[in-house]
Amino acid sequence: MHVQDWLETVPAVSIYALVGLVIGLESLGIPLPGEIVLVSAALLSSQHEGINPFILGACASVGAIVGDSIGYAIGRKGGRPLLAWLGAKFPRHFSEGHVATAERSFQKWGMWAVFFGRFIALLRIFAGPLAGVLRMPYWKFLIANVLGGIIWAGGTTAVIYYVGVVAESWLKRFSWLGLVAAVLIGLASMLIVRRKAKKAATDHAAAEPEPVPAAE
After folding, report:
1. What is the pLDDT of residues 145-195, one digit of tens each?
2. Dist. CA 177–CA 174, nearest whole Å
3. 58: nearest Cα among 41, 71, 80
4. What is the chain's Cα-based Rg?
5. How far apart are CA 44 and CA 51, in angstroms?
6. What are phi and psi of 97, to 5 degrees?
7. CA 49, CA 69: separation in Å to the nearest integer?
8. Is the pTM for the entire model greater than 0.90?
9. Which three-class secondary structure state does DSSP give residue 147?
10. What's the pLDDT tens digit per position in 80-117?
11. How crowded is residue 95: how many other Cβ atoms within 10 Å of its Cβ?
């Protein structure tokens, strides 16, 4: 059975729950392809009346906001040891370089780092936990979290949905292009963040004073 045909048999409530769950877990700090799942579901909703784009966007927004809030609470309680533990478990995502880059963004932009971090694939998993670790005031975090979650999730759903409606006949034959575009965007953002992370790690290592030899 073709994947598209299989997706048509999945109940709409399962799609809503899957999107909300994956995005929530990603926002919580677990590396998952939340954006790809959302794009796929939004594209599917543009071709099938059974999936309501408004409900889909709402579920994605709730998942993003709740996931980030739980991540904030965990980060506030776990502190720096939590980042060290995550670095050991997920070295590709929570390396010292990546954490240093994210931390510099928070120090420079404050609550706006939470807002704009929602639109960058790799930074989405940092926003909640790191804001908690850095003790960002919760009211600032909440405002940025809610605005970022709604605009990112709702905006992505709306854009993909209306593109699918306008070009429905074309997308029926080439629906995989939406997924390819999402993957390419995600990879590009990850490469940019990774390059900045390496630079941050190099700068951090260069800034550390050399140990002074003990006097004999």
Report:
1. 999 999 999 988 888 888 766 555 554 455 555 556 655 665 666 566 566
2. 6
3. 41
4. 20
5. 8
6. -65, -45
7. 32
8. no
9. helix
10. 776 666 666 666 656 666 667 767 777 777 778 788 87
11. 17
8 A C-beta contact, residue 67 and residue 123: no
Token couple for 135: 């003790």
C-alpha to C-alpha distances, 192 to 39, 68, 114, 122, 134, nearest whole angstrom: 21, 23, 18, 10, 24
- One-letter amino acid of 214: A
Q: Is the dihedral of CA 52, 57, 60, 62 positive or negative?
A: negative
With tokens 């009211």, the residue in question is 139
Q: How far is CA 66 from CA 29, 75, 145, 186, in A?
A: 12, 14, 9, 22
